[in-house]
Amino acid sequence: xxxxxxxxxxxxxxxxxxxxxxxxxxxxxxxxxxxxxxxxxxxxxxxxxxxxxxxxxxxxxxxxxxxxxxxxxxxxxxxxxxxxxxxxxxxxxxxxxxxxxxxxxxxxxxxxxxxxxxxxxxxxxxxxxxxxxxxxxxxxxxxxxxxxxxxxxxxxxxxxxxxxxxxxxxxxxxxxxxxxxxxxxxxxxxxxxxxxxxxxxxxxxxxxxxxxxxxxxxxxxxxxxxxxxxxxxxxxxxxxxxxxxxxxxxxxxxxxxxxxxxxxxxxxxxxxxxxxxxxxxxxxxxxxxxxxxxxxxxxxxxxxxxxxxxxxxxxxxxxxxxxxxxxxxxxxxxxxxxxxxxxxxxxxxxxxxxxxxxxxxxxxxxxxxxxxxxxx
Length: 376
Fold this sequence. Notes:
alpha/beta; Rossmann fold; 3 domains; nine-stranded mixed beta sheet; 17 helices; 12 strands
């Protein structure tokens, strides 16, 4: 007689820890049995048919309680400050529920907030050029200024820069791991992991002590894409895992963006392949915001909330024209030229100049060289 799981969390943790199951088979079984508990009280023949799995795997699943201690895994997670959540719980990130094969359990160290559904993925090579480093820093700073969280994979190179600069810019960031949260990889990012948990979260679908095996990273990449409204590939060669993340994003109906680079650099090959196949060219966060309407609308809504809060403090009230212009300037953290503002057709040029002067006098925007303006 096999040891059986007695509650849903215990059963799902146990199922997730059986080698060879994976999210597709796990979800198939959970769906068939109406939960995970009943899986462990079935028989090998029924399990084999329900999960479309071999008899050997069915027997290993049923006997897993004899060799795997799910309760110890749950207790160890609690001791590390890690929550194990299922799709039925409020703490489970909403975007992951839309996957065809969502993680049956998710390990989370940190916190997801309601607004974190408006996130952008930034990925790339582990060996970025100086150009790639500078571009990643620029983009992540701009997204942080817009209040948009950044999702990446905590790998060396582009990922690490994206997480680090976001935190330095007081933004929120999420690291999706290709290993368990009890394993620190790469080891030099141990302090960065702790920092991320204070302004975002570490996320994994793998058991706590799972090592970063090569086969784990495509599964990690699909979650990066799922947690993002769009994915930006900064630098990558043609065999980079960043292109796998981009492919998952496309399959999930997300926008894919790529940073153009030197035709002489091997790390421009990946982005250029994407651009040739329809990815959007990105030079700033504004390019992404303009393309993803739900993100742009959310940023504008947030800006209006901030202005309402300012009004309560007795600060200057804005005219409707000034609000339109301030919204547009707010969406361009690096600054926007007056010709681009006029080109939107929202405001006649005479009123535009008048409103810009008024906003500058009220301390809401700042003039830059070249007739450009930036939000203060």
